[in-house]
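Bit of a strange request maybe. I'm writing a small parser for C-alpha cell strings and I need a real example to test against, not something I typed by hand. Could someone generate the C-alpha cells for this chain?
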Amino acid sequence: MDKKYEGVYTSPIDFALGTMSMQTKSNAFRNDALTTEDVNGWTIDTVCPPDTGEWETGISRNGGSWIITEQYKNYEEAKTGHMKWVNECKDNPEQKFKDITFEIMFGSGSDIADMMDDYDG
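Reply from user aminoacidic:
Good idea to test on real output. This should exercise your parser:
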C-alpha cells in the first residue's frame, strides 16, 4: 500500500518524500508571518502554517511553549487578530490565554476539547 491514508503515510518511501517536501516548504509559510516580540515578555506570532492551512495566532511567554489563541479565514483577518493579541498582551500581561489547539484538532465542543479546557498544565 503506497499511499497516504487519512494523514498517515503507509510506505517508507511516501513518508520520506513527504518529509522532504515539508522541509523544503517549512520556511516558506514564514514569508507573510506577523511577529511582534517582547510585549511584556510575550511574543505574538501570526502565520498560515502548512499543518492547518489556516491563519492562526500563537503566543509564547519568554520563549516557552506556544499557545494557539485564534484562527482566521484570510490574511486581512489575521492582521486584525494579530493586533488584537498584541494589545491584549500589553493591557493584561499576566492573564492566562486559552489554547485552542484541541478545538482545532477535535472540533469545538468535543469531549477532548472540553476536557482540555479544564486542564491547567
